Amino acid sequence: MTRQMTGAKMVVQALKDQGVDTVFGYPGGAVLPIYDEIFQQNDIRHILVRHEQGAVHAAEGYARSTGKPGVVLVTSGPAATNAVTGLTDALMDSIPIVVLTGQVPTFMIGTDGFQEADTVGITRPCTKHNWLVKDTNKLSEVIHQAFHVATTGRPGPTLVDIPKDVQFATGDYTPPAKSRTDHYRPQLKGDVAAITQLVELMEAAERPIFYTGGGVINSGPQASLLLRELVEATGFPITSTLMGLGAYPASGDKWLGMLGMHGLYEANMAMHDCDLMINIGARFDDRITGRLDSFSPESKKAHIDIDASSINKVIHVDIPIIGDVAHVLEDLLRIWKSRGRKVNKDGLKGWWEQIGKWKAVNCLNYTNSDTIIKPQYALERLEELTRGMDRYVTTEVGQHQMWAAQFLGFDEPNRWMTSGGLGTMGYGLPASNGVQIAHPDALVINVAGDASFMMNMQEISTAVQFRLPVKQFILNNERLGMVRQWQQLLHGERYSQSWTESLPDFPKLAEAMGCKGRTVKDPAELDDAIREMIEYDGPFLLEVLVEKHENCFPMIPSGEPHNKMLLGDAQATDAIGDDGAVLV
Amino acid sequence: MAALKIKKGASRKSAYDLRDPHAEVIERHTLAVVVDNEAGVLARVIGLFSGRGYNIESLTVAEVDHTGHRSRITIVTTGTPQVIEQIKAQLGRIVPVHEVHDLTVEGAAVERELALFKVAGSGERRVEALRLADIFRANVVDSTLESFVFEITGSPEKIDAFADLMRPLGLAELARTGVAALARGAE
Ligand SMILES: Cc1ncc(C[n+]2csc(CCOP(=O)(O)OP(=O)(O)O)c2C)c(N)n1
Ligand SMILES: [Mg+2]
Questions:
Q1: How many domains does chain A have?
Q2: Residue B132 belongs to what domain range?
Q3: Is the pTM of this model over 0.90?
Q4: What does the pLDDT look like over B126-148, one tens digit per residue?
Q5: Residue B6 Cα, gap to closest chain A Cα (Å)
Q6: Are A102 and A166 contained in the same domain?
Q7: Do B62 and B71 touch, CB atoms closer than 8 A?
Q8: What is the C-alpha end-to-end distance of chain A, expressed in Å?
Q9: Do B139 and B178 have their domain in common?
Q10: How far is the CA of A199 from the centre of ligand 1 (A)?
């Protein structure tokens, strides 16, 4: 039996049938019929953002912290273009979100109508897939497909563009179970022969390492559990990308810390010197590999990824395994156990001794001060004072983001939300709103920089409206710190435009929007300020005035391999050659 | 600091790839891509090639299964073996793409292209053009006292060769379809 309803009603019905409880959005002319339906129901909560970019990042935060798709509803033209950064961000970081946009009526498409934009054209390269629906009878099926594509295989953003006349017209509703999704079915099980080959290498390896990424988290909680079991059972060291933090606990004794450009010395050195690299759900991003022709020169490499195009894209691997992390790890463990749980004990012993020497370098060491708050110290205190709490952390982009990744520890997946692939300043605050919506009772902290915060600071107003007790932890160095660091290291200390003049009074700014604010600049008062932030029952902005010219180390300079890391300022002068300077 | 010198071979594709991209051989492959014939599918395929910096030497597309709404896109592309593998994997990732076949490696294949040549001239040159057309088994599909339009089918190389011959004989305009290709045999 088919049910007839208007396109606008179908949208709401389809969302309900997909189990959606929250939509992040902003109304406008081309979606008024849908907003009218939203008004007349109570199952789906609509979170009114202050800018469409904020809606998409909030949906990302929601998705990342729950594993469920985030949903966005915005109007045509400028609203759709405002969503583009968030879509690109979600595509780069493989975050499942479904964005619904309004469009001018079908008969006006192509006439440069008011608020018309070629939304599917503009968003084609920044979505996993998108659709323009011209027939109300097809609308519900397309929405169900959009959810299927966003959440299946390597997750990503999808977009459905809905002309206004399609929303007004009446058509047949297709429920999820009857919607055609069969032709998009990425392979989940890995090739058993390849997995067995990997097991053979694992049995013999002297210097193995697990290099894990966001794919473990995207694969779901089971993948993290299997990863933990595998690491404990084999005793191999493990490192992770920025995106994969929390899949293996930071408190675990096999944990080497994050790797990459600002990763830990022991993690990068182990990657460089290993003889077996097992990449699980990471993608050999350039922030990870450093200089390609000297990337881990001695190792055999295996790569587990659900996306075949990630394999052999930049790094040639010896054992490619296409499949879902959880499925592959299950087979891997089973095969490894059935063959007698063998590892090269002598090799591993020597390997851990070597790792111990690298750890002893204590690469995150910094010179503290009792007159000025060092950003590293601020994060150490934040970590200390929030340990054991039901805590979620988002970040903006810059030095503070890297320090947060270095100094905060994550023992569970889905607790750390940051813009990795795109590096989007302005991600963290709206993302923190999205996380808090999904976890109303949790402590949600956005570790922010002064400049990034201002890119989407209007979203404080959203937090206030919906009583989201998000905490904005701003490390204010009055600089575009990361830009300044590169200018110091690469451009002869010519600080072109990286000094932010006339910054606002942040607490007053917060107060103007109804959020509580405080500034702290004395290290002795930091703990008290952090405690006030945590304990305050509502949104809170804590501005921490920090050392202005602190650099973030370790750092693999552009164009250098992993074993050429800079550990501190003394090494940094003229460390980056001309070849490196052209790289990003 | 010295002026920036971009080292020869620094790739545009990866910020850290300082390897010489010419170190590997460039291969030419013919790919057959079966897609849902839905709006925008060609834009997705072309956008992939331009967005990721891949080459397109030739591209043809038409619906081949009206009831199933399937189209077949034939793409001739060039690149290192690694890039060709990437292209296939990236094509396979596009949601409305059903099959990607590399006809260059999946056994023998036939490749054909159709071209229309307008050759204008009179006297000896006109006679010579007609004679050569005959040798190449080109058909005359239009003629006036000063011109012919020849239709020719064959491999791209054959069409190139015919074009070289027609150029001094008054080649005025040339339209090519691009390559259509199928694997040989019953499968
Ligand atoms: C939207 C956007 N624009 C520009 C950049 C380039 N960028 C990267 S980090 C950075 C500075 C960030 O400053 P701030 O938020 O204060 O963080 P800090 O590095 O000082 O901790 C800039 C401009 C970016 N990543 N994103
Ligand atoms: Mg700053």
A1: 3
A2: 109-183
A3: yes
A4: 999 999 999 999 999 999 999 99
A5: 6
A6: yes
A7: yes
A8: 57
A9: yes
A10: 42
